[in-house]
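**Protein of interest**
===
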Amino acid sequence: MNTIPAQELKRRGIAAVDGLIEAGDVHVIRNNRPEYVILSEERYRELVAEAEEAYVARVKASLEDVKAGRVRKFASADELLQALDADGE
């Protein structure tokens, strides 16, 4: 894991990250725990694009389930919760 202490970031500013970011995401350590992650703009855009693609894939799969009749309808939230409880048993 590529890390930098928060104190170093405070002391040197963003310049403290310049050399590290080339090797990948930088985890900022605060109180001995990873607290933040610094990403390059390119890496951020990749993550956003991947999340959007996954979202679209989930929506498409859901629509296919509806078309194929693989859905169940419930009259109320209580009915849904009862069905979920029954499925978990």
